[in-house]
From TrEMBL:
UniProt family annotation: Belongs to the Mu gp47/PBSX XkdT family.
Lineage: Bacteria, Bacillati, Bacillota, Bacilli, Bacillales
Species the sequence originates in: Paenibacillus roseus
Entries under InterPro entries matching the protein: Baseplate_J-like_C (IPR058530), Baseplate_J_M (IPR058531), Phage_Baseplate_Assmbl_Protein (IPR052399)
Stretches assigned to coiled coil: none
Pfam families registered for this protein in UniProt: Baseplate_J_C (PF26079), Baseplate_J_M (PF26078)
Residues passing through the membrane, by range: none
Protein name listed in UniProt: Baseplate J/gp47 family protein
Chain ranges of the Baseplate J-like C-terminal domain: 268-358
Domain of life: Bacteria
Domain Baseplate J-like central positions: 182-261
Length: 359
């Protein structure tokens, strides 16, 4: 909008208003008087351009996008804390009960006991919000003394932690709220309510899936993996506490019998034949190929809710493999033993299996 108002443009326009009978060369009195003002005006126009961009949803970022979305009731999702399973054994080798509120650390990350599922198995919550709470596994060190404790282990993820919602994700939800208004238990309403639940990454809604008044919702976890039973149960409780009750005891409208399910993981094993650069060995590119496959499948999982079915395509994988340094060509790529693309079910997501490299 203001990009043409540069220092040179403004200075020349100012000097153009001065009669030619006055010395306007660089270093003259009138030039030196106008130049600082032109510089300030140029800076002002740059700031006006920036402020104009921050006032519209398609170009706003950070706090300004948060405020813009908030005008339509769309709030940026804060970072959430991971909930993990902890396993505790006493000095006799038996599972033991540890105190609620006791704290344990691993890799400078602290977890606190918030619930006991059974003797020796407890629910831990990471004190630091975000995906950092999902990353570590293994031996925990008690911060406070626990009598009789021999080993403490940080095990599976119950509900994954998530970082603060990104600008792109918030912008997408803002557009959805504006263009697809949520009302009275329509599909948009279910999506907005469930996607806002901590630990949920996305969902698919199947209205009238088992007759009138029935609704099935399939969810994927915030870390783009299959959700745990704990997360599925949490969402079920929030939406319809008694499965298929239709009593309106949760967020679901009266008369809606809601069933929450999780996506199912399908392991993808890859076998491919590579032509390597001189001096390269398969072992040198193995990790890179596995990383490329993991990134590709993660991108697919992120798009699961927008697709009727996910398709793992050999051509897409080949193209990504060719970007790896030291690989000159790729051929005969097979997915789970077949040279064809791999089409998944509507509620299936791909996960990384084995990667076999032939040369």
């Amino acid at each position: 909008m203001y990009e043409t108002y540069t220092f040179s443009f403004l200075l020349n326009r100012m000097l153009g208003r001065v009669p030619d009978t006055v010395d306007k060369r660089e270093g003259s009195i009138i030039y030196d008087a106008c130049a600082p003002a032109a510089a300030e005006l140029a800076q002002l126009y740059m700031e006006l351009e920036m402020n104009a961009a921050l006032s519209f949803a398609d170009t706003a970022t950070g706090e300004f996008l948060t405020r813009r979305a908030g005008e339509f009731g769309v709030r940026r999702s804060p970072a959430t804390k991971a909930k993990r399973r902890g396993l505790f054994v006493d000095d006799s080798g038996r599972p033991m009960i540890v105190p609620l509120g006791s704290r344990y650390s691993i890799e400078d990350t602290v977890y606190v006991v918030v619930a006991a599922n059974s003797v020796g198995s407890v629910e831990l919550e990471c004190e630091t919000p975000g995906v950092v709470g999902n990353q570590f596994f293994g031996q925990l060190l008690p911060i406070d003394y626990v009598a009789g404790l021999a080993t403490a282990e940080l095990a599976g993820i119950l509900i994954p932690g998530a970082d603060e919602e990104s600008d792109d994700a918030l912008r997408e939800r803002y557009y959805s709220a504006v263009n697809e208004p949520a009302f009275g238990g329509n599909v948009a309403d279910y999506k907005q309510e469930i996607n806002a639940i901590s630990g949920v990454g996305a969902c698919k809604v199947y209205p009238a899936w088992n007759g009138g008044g029935t609704v099935k919702v399939t969810i994927i976890a915030a870390d783009w993996s299959a959700p745990t039973t704990a997360l599925v149960n949490q969402v079920q409780t929030i939406m319809d506490p008694t499965v298929n009750s239709g009593q309106g005891l949760g967020l679901a409208p009266i008369g809606h019998q809601v069933t929450i399910q999780g996506v199912q993981s399908l392991t993808v094993n890859v076998e491919t034949t590579l032509t390597l650069a001189a001096g390269m060995t398969p072992g040198q590119v193995q990790a890179d190929v596995e990383a490329v496959l993991a990134a590709y499948l993660r991108d697919l999982r992120k798009d699961w809710s927008n697709q009727a079915q996910l398709v793992v395509r050999t051509a897409q994988l080949d193209a990504r493999i060719l970007t790896i340094a030291g690989i000159e060509d790729v051929a005969d790529t097979r997915l789970n033993g077949s040279p064809a693309n791999l089409t998944l079910g509507a509620d299936e997501i791909p996960t990384v299996g084995t990667v076999t490299i032939n040369v």
